[in-house]
Design a protein that fits this description.
heterodimer; A: alpha/beta; seven-stranded parallel β-sheet; four-stranded parallel β-sheet; 14 helices; 13 strands; B: mainly beta; three-stranded antiparallel β-sheet; 9 strands
């Protein structure tokens, strides 16, 4: 059951977002959000001064606004940034049929004046959103985002295979599954390329991973195998290849149909697709959301609390000790996959639990992090620097 | 001396993982196989299932995850002090 948007895409949430067009507008967005707490603020630190990023940023902002979990949005620009908020809002409105209102601080009275205008508009959009009702919608309208953060040595044998089962199910329903975090593919090039639908896709997979390996080596030199975090190592992972062999299991076993760029619109019905993006979770989730993902399954061994403001993020904890240590649901954890190694749960039962959770979340059940409002952050991946 | 449960993921693996912390002398049971812990091994960390000489690949998930950087004996803890993979990454 979802919200069918004018362009036919299906949202599983019905948010009204207030979005910063650039970093300098973020303070204004937070003032609007303080006045209209039911709206979802999406602020970030980019939007200007990085000539290598202007084309990418436009794609990313448009992708975020287009996501069907958003009923509508207010885009707040400053006025001197490269992309005019009104232009972006008009393009997204034309493409999606949704109302994206835009204000530009320097043209619309600045400070308090633009905050009041934006807040009034946001309240109006929330009243319109409240008229929407969930309708039956097929799972083929799902773009399923997978993520891992704070992996440990159990991630690859408990949580990730269980999420992989859900990935396979979504692909079989005709949806799209997104697998990303390319630095967490090192050592799996031949496995992934071997599952590509064509040799050309396989070659793109290899080139993407090899290039990432070269960049990590250029940055870290002899320590390059330790492009894993302290928490991963404490949790029993020693090399990036060991971590990666566990990570890729969350994408399931489907053939890999394509490799898309960070935040590239991907559409439904694509099966398993790789998004070329960083392992850094805040940036990865933002990219997947901009691709169109309405829901995330996020596996963690160490208890990563990160969610995303406008999409439910189901936390699957690989480790029973961690699940209990961070307080279970109060720690933002939804599913305790660690019970599979304590013997309290079979892998089959865990897979069923994960799939049942997906169906429930898509129809409106809140995740632990939604209930506790742990939120998350819009974090744009910008590989080149600001000047 | 305690019995510790371990897991060997793939038949080709040369390391398993222990599900609880092991002390030297503990018996680690991985399915039908048994290994005596040669030293302390933290929970979820790797134990060598056979001797692995320096430079030889270490297998987990049926795939190489790195190579021994110090001689590894069966039953020993395998981690950052004796396992690395830097040479497996693409060079410039």
């Amino acid at each position: 059951m979802g919200f069918i948007r004018p362009d036919g895409r299906v949202g599983i949430r019905n948010h009204v977002a207030v979005v910063a067009n650039c970093g300098c507008g973020s303070g204004l967005v937070m003032r609007v959000a303080a006045q209209v707490p039911e709206a979802v603020p999406l602020i970030h630190a980019d939007g200007c001064s990085s000539p290598g990023e202007y084309v990418r940023w436009k794609r990313i902002i448009k992708g975020v606004l287009s996501n069907p979990n958003l009923h509508s949005a207010v885009l707040l620009g400053v006025g001197c940034e490269r992309y005019d908020a009104r232009e972006i809002a008009a393009q997204v409105s034309a493409e999606t049929g949704k109302e994206i209102a835009a204000y530009v601080s320097q043209d619309d009275g600045g400070g308090e004046a633009v905050i009041q205008k934006a807040a009034e508009k946001t309240r109006q959009l929330l009243r319109a959103a409240a008229e929407c009702r969930r309708q039956p919608a097929p799972f083929s309208s799902l773009i399923f985002g997978t993520e891992c953060g704070g992996s440990d040595a159990l991630s690859g044998i408990t949580a990730n295979p269980a999420v992989g089962h859900v990935s396979d199910w979504v692909a079989a329903q005709g949806g799209t599954v997104l697998l990303s975090e390319v630095a967490e593919f090192f050592g799996t090039e031949e496995i992934l390329a071997g599952r590509a639908v064509t040799p050309e896709v396989g070659e793109r997979i290899r080139r993407m991973i090899y290039q990432e390996e070269r960049e990590v080596r250029a940055c870290m030199g002899a320590n390059a195998s330790r492009i894993i975090e302290r928490g991963n190592m404490d949790g029993g992972l020693t090399t990036i290849q060991e971590k990666a062999l566990g990570c890729i299991r969350k994408g399931g076993t489907s053939p890999i149909t394509d490799v898309v760029e960070y935040a590239e619109p991907v559409g439904t019905g694509r099966g398993l697709v790789i998004m070329h993006g960083p392992g850094y979770d805040p940036a990865s989730l933002t990219g997947l959301f901009a691709c169109g993902a309405q829901v995330f399954f996020f596996t963690t061994g160490r208890g990563n609390p990160l969610g995303f403001p406008a999409a439910p993020c189901v936390k699957v904890c690989s480790n029973d000790g961690t699940f209990r240590k961070v307080g279970g649901a109060r720690g933002g954890m939804d599913i305790n996959a660690g019970l599979v190694v304590t013997g309290a749960l079979s892998m089959e039962a865990l897979k069923d639990q994960c799939l049942d959770m997906l169906k429930a979340v898509c129809s409106g059940r809140e995740t632990a992090s939604e209930q506790h409002r742990y939120g998350g952050i819009m974090c744009i991946f910008s590989p080149t620097r600001a000047f | 001396m305690k019995e510790i449960t371990g897991i060997r993921i793939d038949p080709a693996d040369t390391v398993g993982i222990v599900l609880q912390a092991a002390r030297a002398g503990d018996c680690i049971r991985l399915g039908t196989e048994q290994v005596t812990a040669a030293e302390a091994i933290p929970a979820n960390h790797k134990v060598a299932l056979r001797d692995i000489p320096v430079g030889e690949a270490v297998y987990k998930y049926g795939c190489p995850i790195g190579y021994a950087t110090a001689p590894i004996k069966r039953g020993e803890h395998v981690h950052v002090h004796n396992l690395d993979s830097e040479q497996m990454l693409q060079k410039g």
